[in-house]
Write a structure and sequence with these properties.
By secondary structure, the protein is an alpha+beta fold. 42% of the residues lie in helices and 16% in strands. A 5-stranded antiparallel sheet has the order 3-4-5-2-6.
């Protein structure tokens, strides 16, 4: 097709991680969340879980332990499964690598999924759809500011430790549109200044520090094996809901909230997990110590200086019923 030129005052790149127009800083390559999923009909009675519940992040690997090479691979490069049943005979299964670099190949994820289903005795009769998921996580940020405005994956909005982005992007959409309108009104003849204003609304010093904290978590999860992952998430999901739910959903905006969350994981996890977390922090060096410290301490104007307690923030310490 013939190339086409389009003139505009402000270009918003929503092309995802392909980086079609947005320039990114030099830095660490992102980890990748990769997943292979199927929506399939199964033989009635072969689904091993309650049909009215969704299975989330099942890191059990009994299906891999009979073969030594599979057992070693499972420990070194962990994967988990999501399951969501539509009814008793149609289920969505997805085998997922949370974060890895290099990414886990789709063929390996597919092999592990079917090996898991065979171990369960789940018989697949027909596959209606396949899903291939590839989500870069963390790594370098977009160069801020720049002439092109990014949004979604092109703006680095993917959570560096979970891969989640949709809810955050939807929450930011209206505010970003309003900031574009305001910037073009304020800078009608200066597109560079308009783009800079939008970028500074999208990524504030406060949200950049929040990303630093999540980025540390994502890099840590990328480096550890299955045993430590189990220890980590065992501590993660026993925390009060607003703490672990807030981390997953970009809602731990205040530094002290992130500090309480981090201390909660540390207090509840194993010593081997504490050792690897401490080693990760130590090896990050002075620059990493500064970033991490600034991400959990109220050192900037506008930070909430009140330390959360069950007395002044009771909702922040409520755990879900077992």
């Amino acid at each position: 097709d013939a190339a086409e030129s389009v003139r505009c005052k402000l270009l918003v790149d929503c092309s995802g991680h392909g980086k079609a127009f947005v320039k990114f800083d030099e830095g660490k390559e992102p980890g990748v969340q990769a997943a292979y999923g199927i929506e399939a009909d199964i033989t009635p009675g072969t689904y091993p879980f309650p049909g009215d519940e969704m299975l989330l992040m099942d890191y059990r690997d009994e299906h891999m332990v009979s073969n030594p090479s599979d057992a070693d691979a499972s420990e070194a490069v962990p994967t988990f499964i999501y399951c969501m049943a539509s009814n008793s005979t149609r289920v969505f299964f997805e085998e997922t690598s949370l974060i890895a670099n290099p990414p886990v190949p789709f063929d390996e994820l597919k092999r592990r999924l079917y090996k898991r289903l065979e171990h369960w005795g789940t018989e697949v009769l027909e596959v209606h759809e396949e899903e291939f998921c590839y989500i870069p996580m963390g790594g370098a940020m977009p160069t801020i500011p720049q002439r092109v405005v990014g949004f979604g994956g092109a703006a680095g909005l993917v959570h560096p430790a979970t891969g989640y982005m949709i809810s955050r992007t939807m929450n930011l959409a209206a505010g970003t549109a309003a900031s574009i309108e305001s910037a073009l009104i304020k800078h009608p003849s200066d597109s560079e200044a308009a783009a800079s204003a939008v970028w500074n609304t999208l990524w504030t010093p406060k949200t950049l520090r929040q990303r630093d904290f999540a980025n540390f978590g994502g890099e840590y999860l990328e480096e550890i094996g299955l045993s430590e992952l189990r220890d980590f998430f065992g501590a993660f999901f026993v925390l009060p809901f607003q703490q672990w739910g807030g981390f997953l959903s970009h809602r731990l905006v205040e530094p002290y909230d992130r500090l309480i969350f981090g201390l909660g994981v540390w207090a509840n996890t194993s010593w081997r997990c504490r050792f690897s977390l401490g080693l990760k922090g130590f090896l990050s060096g002075p620059a990493g110590w500064l970033l991490l410290g600034r991400s959990v301490l109220p050192v900037e104007d506008g930070d909430d200086k009140q330390f959360p307690t069950p007395e002044n923030r009771p909702e922040f310490f409520v755990k879900l019923p077992p």
